[in-house]
Amino acid sequence: MTLTSDRFSIDTRRLVDPALRKAIDRLDAATRLTAGYHLGFWDADGRTRGGAAGKGVRSTLALLSAVAAEAPPAEGVPAAVACELVHNFSLLHDDVIDGDTERRHRPTVWARFGTSDAILAGDALLSLANEVLADVASDTVPAAVRRVGGTVRRLIAGQSADVAFEKRDDVSLTECLAMAADKTGALLACAASLGAVLVGAPTPLCSGLSEFGDHIGMAFQLTDDLLGIWGDPAVTGKPVLSDLRTRKKTVPVVVALTSETAAGGKLRELYAKPTPLTDAELTDAAAWIDEAGGRTWTEAEADRHLAAGIDALAPLGLHQEVERELTAVAQQLRGRDR
Question: 58, 59, 195, 214: which has the fewest Cβ within 10 Å?
Answer without folding.
Answer: 214
